[in-house]
Amino acid sequence: AYTMIDYIGDANARARALTQIGFGALRVGDYEQAWTLLEQGVAAYEAVSDKVGASMAASGLGEIAVRRGELDKATLFLEKSLSDRRELSQQWGIAASLGSLGRITAWRMG
Length: 110
Fold this sequence. Notes:
About 80% of the residues lie in helices and about 0% in strands. The chain is an all-alpha fold. Helix 1 (about 10-25) runs parallel beside helix 3, helix 2 (about 30-45) packs antiparallel against helix 3 (about 50-65) and helix 4 (about 70-85) runs antiparallel to helix 5 (about 90-110).
């Protein structure tokens, strides 16, 4: 079954649409749909060599993993996102990734 996203010809616009709809699904608690869309968003951003977008979508995957209690998986996605954001000198992204990783550390410490 095709969706509206399948008809978006511009690769950058498609990556943005996948990611934004994925974050929307995350906000309403549809983690399975959010995961699928954000995974596709990461791949779409990587296909157009957009590290900023890919790191944002990856951070969403990390957040889903946190909410599911999959802390090891969350840490992998968030550390990847943090690494990319540091490489890009993206201060707000670095802060967001560090905050999320800090929450995971706090939960693990009890």
